[in-house]
Design brief:
- By secondary structure, this protein is an alpha/beta fold.
- It has one domain: Alpha-Beta Barrel (TIM Barrel).
- 37% of the residues lie in helices and 13% in strands.
- The chain is built from 15 helices and 16 strands.
- An eight-stranded parallel β-barrel has the order 1-2-3-4-5-7-13-14, surrounded by six helices.
- Helix 3 runs parallel beside helix 5 and helix 13 runs parallel beside helix 14.
- It is globular.
- The chain starts with 10 loop residues before the first strand and ends in an 8-residue tail after the last helix.
- Belongs to the glycosyl hydrolase 1 family.
- One of its GO terms (biological process) is carbohydrate metabolic process.
- Keywords: Glycosidase, Hydrolase.
- One of its GO terms (molecular function) is hydrolase activity, acting on glycosyl bonds.
- This is 6-phospho-beta-glucosidase.
């Protein structure tokens, strides 16, 4: 059966990140971020994990698409107006840390950077769009990596606290919903974007990743504390990358491995930030990597802070599910959201190998709500695809409509199951630079941006077929999904 009785207050919208669409990477005093130093291409992550990678921007050999993005910095009014035409109730975006504190360790903020976000927030509110802000979304100041070594250094707690306090204090009257760190758990497999760690500064040592997580947990709790001191009604959430995970078969060995994979990837970071304490399986998890909790630098005061200031809700991204198999070694593999894995024979995959599993989203919502009993917000979901304009310049992206329709149906089913779902903001509501490949050709948006992988194009915005379809979905509060 199809259940499409969404709550009246359900927040429909879209999501982006500053480093993937703003551009203007050195304009108005902005400093370099780690995203600015990531070259384009499917091998970008292999490159940054070379032992001698030192974050040098080498424009003679590589393209850096984040430098221009889609020039949202100069087009934000046009873009937000298009969002309002779709009927957005909310818009999730991030504040570029290096636009506010260019090096990350300054005592005073860059006022030009704050003025930009003053204008963005005002433009959202002008159209009745609720801003939802991610404080740190894969764009920490590069200086905090090259000088301090990234998040494994406890000094970053203070730098982040200053940044969070600056933006929370400035915007708390206009912005009710916040998230501390984007996809914080992704660091288990790939810590460069969320922790600033690569092989050359310690990524190969899992102790550094767990230390960086602890420092981020403390920093996030500081943000929650600051926000609630400003207004106890502020909603400050964490944000996870969630991949519903299945055992390949009923073999108890694979079932146990699936349990352990869920603990390590899907639940550990959420357990600490939502429950306010390290879970019972922490020692067993660390032991898998030859680490003990006592190897980490933490204090009783920090543990008390975590307990006293847990998050208010859980935001998460969902693009695909995963399969665990530890016995056979000859399975076909597929790509994924920063992760690859075993092919599920029951699922189809996108052009980039991401396995499409709408029912997995219903399972994810039930698993998270059963575990935490806090409101859930699906802040990323979508289909990356090559969109080709026809002879009339129109894009008939029925494949995207079908993907989103199936996932929205499963959200409705989860709400019927009793899950408290706050809202849904599909990823890349306007075409932007892909985080995983640095490509423009991997498009997610309802709005097409005329720009190719070589950086050529007019930047003209145009509506895809999915634009009008999503407008209809929002206008009907999810009741009309027909295309």
């Amino acid at each position: 059966m199809t259940y499409l009785n969404f709550p009246k207050q359900f927040m429909w919208g879209g999501a982006t990140a500053a480093n993937q669409l703003e551009g203007a990477y050195r304009e108005d005093g902005k400093g370099l971020s780690i995203a600015d130093a990531l070259p384009q291409g499917k091998a970008r992550f292999d490159l940054v994990n070379e032992p001698d990678f030192d974050w040098t921007i080498d424009e003679s050999n590589y393209r850096y698409p984040n430098h221009r993005g889609i020039d949202h910095y100069h087009h934000f009014k046009e873009d937000i107006k298009l969002f309002s035409e779709m009927g957005f109730k909310c818009y999730r975006f991030s504040i570029a840390w290096s636009r506010i504190f260019p090096e990350g360790d300054e005592k005073t903020p860059n006022m030009a950077g704050l003025a930009f976000y003053d204008a963005v927030i005002a433009e959202c509110l002008k159209y009745g769009i609720e801003p939802i802000i991610t404080i740190s979304h894969y764009e920490m100041p590069l200086h905090l990596v090259t000088k301090y070594g990234g998040w494994k250094n406890k000094q970053l707690i203070g730098f982040y606290k200053r940044f969070a306090e600056t933006v929370l204090t400035r915007y708390f009257k206009q912005v009710k919903y916040w998230m501390t760190f984007n996809e914080i758990n992704s660091a288990l497999a790939f810590p460069v974007m969320s922790q600033g760690l690569v092989k050359s500064n310690g990524a190969a040592d899992k102790r550094n990743i767990f230390q960086a997580w602890h420092n981020q947990f403390v920093a996030g709790a500081e943000a929650v504390k600051i926000g609630h001191q400003l207004d106890q009604n502020l909603q400050i959430g964490c944000m996870l990358l969630y991949a519903t995970t299945y055992s390949y078969d009923a073999n108890p060995v694979n079932q146990l491995a699936t349990l352990q994979q869920n603990q390590a990837f899907n639940f550990f970071c959420g357990d600490v930030q939502v429950r306010g304490e390290y879970p019972a399986y922490t020692d067993a998890l660390l032991d898998q990597y030859g680490i003990k909790l006592t190897d980490l630098d933490f204090s009783a005061a920090e543990l008390a802070l975590l307990k006293q200031h847990p998050v208010d809700y859980i935001g998460f991204s969902y693009y695909m599910s995963a399969v665990v198999e530890t016995i056979q070694k000859d399975h076909a593999e597929v790509g994924g959201n920063l992760l690859s894995g075993i092919k599920n024979p029951f699922l189809e995959a996108s052009e980039w190998g991401w396995q499409i599993d709408p029912i997995g989203l219903r399972i994810a919502l039930n698993q998270l709500y059963d575990r935490y009993r806090k409101p859930l917000f699906i802040v990323e979901n979508g289909l990356g695809a090559v969109d080709q304009p026809d002879s009339n310049g129109e894009i008939h992206d029925d494949y995207r409509i079908d993907y989103l329709k199936q996932h929205i149906e499963q959200i409705g089913a989860a709400i019927h199951d009793g899950v408290d779902v706050m809202g849904y903001t599909p990823w890349g509501c306007i075409d932007l630079v892909s985080a995983s490949t640095g490509q423009m050709s991997k498009r997610y948006g309802f709005i097409y941006v005329d720009l190719d992988d070589a950086g050529q194009g007019t930047l003209k915005r145009s509506k895809k077929k999915s634009f009008d379809w999503y407008r209809q979905v929002i206008a009907s509060n999810g009741a009309d999904l027909d295309s």
